[in-house]
């Protein structure tokens, strides 16, 4: 859906999911889960630690507290750097997930599992090839965390300052719901660009044959398909981010409470 080039066999999230389950098997909906778990261990671990440290440093001598622009800066920096560190796992995950489509189209498989994907990427483009498409990844992560971290922090602070609600699960649910929505709105265009760049055909040196850069992909998409093409896949993106945001923030706050740490 997000990739350019050949015509899509399915249209819409539910038809795509049903088609994959019917033709490849139900478990193939979880294809690429292992590199996805590695990615989140690196990415989420870093972004949360970095955001809180940046927040503490920027608000150390500020009587007005942690203002919105500082939250935006902290969220984008934490998310961008965290994704830069985890980008190789995202590239491997994306290539594994595309194998089912290639087999259905009668094309030979490019990779056979996570380790094989890693070896072939390094063989074709060297170690730096593991960061192919990293800048759309980094840009997406910066935008998503601008929405997720900054929104959660701002909404939670506003609720506690302006309502009678306390720092409990209700407040966490409301804040995480807003965070998931804003994160999806901010991140979907970058997600479309990222997926198209990472799934495009490459030459023997690992260079893309369709798009020269994320800016080129952005312009080609808008020029050829219209601005709303950048929001293809918004619904599945939001439906993925909403439960993820809710589960993560509720768990994160409870773990902090159980460990004796201060609330986020």
Explain how this protein is built.
It is a single chain. By secondary structure, the protein is mainly alpha-helical. The chain has helices at 13-24, 33-58, 68-97, 99-104, 114-125, 134-162, 169-199, 214-225, 234-259. The longest helix has 31 residues, at 169-199. The protein is globular and about 60 Å long. The protein starts with 12 loop residues before the first helix and ends in a 5-residue tail after the last helix.
Question: Could you write a compact summary of the structure shown?
Answer:
The protein has about 260 residues and is an all-alpha fold. About 70% of the residues lie in helices and about 0% in strands.
* Oligomer class: single chain
Helix content: 55-70%
Cα distance, first to last residue? 36 Å
> What is the strand tally?
0
- What is the N-to-C order of secondary-structure elements (H for helix, E for strand)? HHHHHHHHH
**Beta-strand content bin:** under 5%
- Major sheet characteristics: none
Indicate the structural class.
mainly alpha
The DSSP helix count reads 9
Shape label: globular
Low-confidence stretches: 1-8
Keywords:
264 residues, mainly alpha, 9 helices, disordered N terminus
């Amino acid at each position: 859906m997000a990739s350019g080039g050949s015509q899509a066999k399915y249209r819409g999230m539910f038809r795509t999911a049903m088609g994959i389950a019917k033709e490849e098997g139900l478990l193939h909906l979880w294809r690429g889960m292992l590199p996805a778990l590695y990615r989140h261990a690196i990415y989420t671990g870093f972004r949360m630690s970095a955001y809180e440290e940046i927040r503490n440093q920027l608000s150390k001598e500020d009587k007005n507290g942690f203002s919105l622009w500082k939250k935006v800066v902290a969220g984008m920096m934490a998310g961008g750097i965290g994704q830069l560190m985890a980008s190789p796992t995202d590239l491997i995950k994306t290539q594994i997930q595309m194998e089912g489509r290639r087999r259905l189209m009668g094309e030979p498989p490019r990779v056979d599992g996570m380790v094989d994907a890693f070896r072939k990427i390094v063989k074709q483009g060297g170690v730096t090839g593991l960061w192919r498409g990293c800048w759309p990844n980094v840009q997406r992560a910066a935008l998503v965390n601008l929405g997720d971290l900054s929104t959660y922090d701002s909404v939670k602070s506003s609720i506690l300052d302006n309502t009678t609600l306390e720092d409990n699960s209700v407040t966490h649910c409301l804040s995480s719901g807003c965070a998931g929505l804003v994160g999806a709105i901010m991140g979907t265009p970058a997600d479309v660009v990222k997926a198209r760049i990472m799934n495009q055909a490459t030459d023997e040196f690992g260079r893309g044959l369709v798009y020269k850069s994320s800016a080129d992909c952005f312009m080609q998409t808008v020029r050829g398909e219209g601005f709303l093409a950048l929001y293809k896949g918004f619904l599945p993106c939001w439906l993925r981010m909403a439960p993820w945001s809710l589960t993560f923030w509720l768990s994160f706050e409870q773990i902090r409470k159980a460990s004796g740490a201060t609330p986020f």
